[in-house]
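Q: I'm writing up a methods section and want to include an example of the input and output format. Could you take the sequence below and give the corresponding predicted structure tokens, formatted cleanly so I can copy it straight into the document?
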Amino acid sequence: MNSLIAILGLAFLVLVHEAGHFFTARAVGMSPRKFYIGFPPAIAKVRRKGIEYGIGAIPLGGYVKIPGMHRPAPSDVDAQFGRAVQEAPQLHGPAERLKRLLAEGEFEVASGALDAFAAAIRETELSDPARRSAERGLDELRDGLGGDAYWRQRTWKKVLVIGAGPGTNLIFAVVMFTLLLSLGPGKATTVVAEVEPNRPAVRAGLQPGDEIVAIDGKPVDYTDMIEEISGSNGRPLRLTVEREGRRVTLAPARPFRDPVDDRYRLGIRTDTEPIPFHVAVVDSFRLTGLVTKEIGGVLVRLVQGSGREEISSPIGIVRGSSNALDQGFETFFWVLGLISLSLALLNLLPLLPLDGGHIAFSIIEGVRGRSVGREVYERVSVVGIALVLTLFFIGLSNDIGGRTGG
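A: Here is the clean output for your methods example:
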């Protein structure tokens, strides 16, 4: 059951990502053609205002089809209509005219030529596979030549639509961290809530309600206190506490080694205090920055030839999420927030076909003043896909070989 919940959690994050693309595209006038929960083929679908909404047979994540991601090219005609032209040579002339207009960038004239080509296809007898391919090609070219095609939009619109996917994952992570911090058990303090019997804390004279303010004369907060105790290696520690408005220095306490996690402890449980919402917001951004820095460090180490063992695949992600569920839903939601942040950062890498690659190319096209052809996208995508697959297989080998904990 835990694995199923973990898989659904990962699928939800992908759906959040795609929803970011979908709603932003609609907001800036790029009407998406499809929005699916899960991946096609569809097991149920309905069309509303020109958009096909559906539930996919593959129940993971989501799928959004934004029209005209690439500028139509002559090679599209060959790829989509090659079989139809081979079966019906009379289509060769209209196809060649359409290819010439696309090559010359005469896209308005090409729209009319496409309509004429569509009429010729309707009047021609073709095999079912050739007709399906031709109809699919007509739809793709109509989208690519339409006024709401992605490649025809201004740079800021393209960057906004593509950036909305990882941006939504980033926002989800920050919101999740904020809620967990503000609604969770609160911030640990140095105020003693409970003293375990027959432990060093009792023998040193520590009492519930004492606030530990210094160890060996050094002022401490909660983090410092834990580090001093766990790093003591069992040497005696002299605690100074606030008790009923006065400072008291206790007898030395020798921490014991806990066999459960092999850490030194005194045998106390400290109190917590609520975290105000505005503090939780600031802390969530601070945590996001720290995790981003750490993930960036992993990528740098990977480029330098180390850090391989820190990469994980979806298998490891699901395993880690499932293990988090064993510790409770609060831990699971922390992991879900971290995964959402990781998805955002991974997708922002400037590699095609990742979102970061599309953003980079949109900026390049804005600077050049004209779009880049599909063939360039495809060549660059080969490199990006190879790198992404390399990361995937490194993570997969780690997860299968047990080199990471997920």
